[in-house]
Amino acid sequence: MNFRTQKYMLHQRRTQSVLRWSQYLFFAVGILALSYFCFVRLDTRLYQAYQSWRFERASKGLKPVIGSAEQLHPSPLPALAEADRARVESAAREGSPLGRIEISSIGLSAMVLEGTDGKTLRRAVGHIPGTALPGLQGNVAIAGHRDTFFRPLRKIRKDDEITLTTLNGTFRYRVDSTQVVEPQDTEVLDHSDDAILTLVTCYPFYFVGSAPKRFVVRAHRIPG
């Protein structure tokens, strides 16, 4: 066996070794990625179930003060009493649960937490700080990821009904419009004298990577 042949065989063995270890590495990375995905999904499901259970327990001990079907008021959209307003505002701590949003027509149901940081939006949808709190007059804005809780928004239509349930009662909204805006078009979050609800998620829904636009749903509150 000459020197050239030996060198070729050594090169072949090294190449095979590198390929073999590369396969092991990619396999390990794949297992880790799959494990992380499963962990995130499980954590999200468990967190939603736990917060829903806590919310149901808390709501059973409180009488609704606004927006419920069994309550009669001379005005269809009464203001919260000061004590109830204080209770709503005190609940708005970063990551704390504020209520639950449901859109039965598209199969959407999720707990609403205060804030829009990464951890909050991984586990739920988030109330956007600086906008009206659920139950108060104004523009209540809620954000969610397009690939998790707010993915069903791609199917939402005008006149669909949205239910927002808090410890201060149940509030019903009817969809007025949807639009696609640029991320810097933050006027959709501006204050309003009317009782409205704004839902925000990234767009397009099936875009790979960081989506370039925002999908916005606007709804007005109706007597419930």
Stated plainly, the CATH topology is called Sortase, Chain: A
Number of helices: 3
CATH superfamily: Sortase
Distance between the termini: 91 Å
Provide the number of structural domains: 1
Biggest sheet, open or closed, and with what strands and sense? 8 strands, mixed, barrel
Strand order of the largest sheet: 1-2-3-4-7-8-6-5
Which regions contain 5 or more consecutive residues with pLDDT less than 50?
63-85
Mean pLDDT score: 79
Number of strands: 8
Helix coverage percent: 25-40%
**What is the correct CATH architecture?**
Beta Barrel
Structural class: alpha+beta
Task: Give me the strand/helix succession.
Answer: HHEEHEEEEEE
Summary, kept brief:
The protein has 224 residues and is an alpha+beta fold. Helix content is 33%, strand content 26%.
Q: Care to describe what's here?
A:
With 224 residues, this protein is of the alpha+beta class. It has one domain: Sortase, Chain: A (Beta Barrel), CATH 2.40.260. Helix content is 33%, strand content 26%. Strands 1-2-3-4-7-8-6-5 form an 8-stranded mixed beta barrel. It starts with a helix and ends with a strand. About 10% of the residues have low confidence.
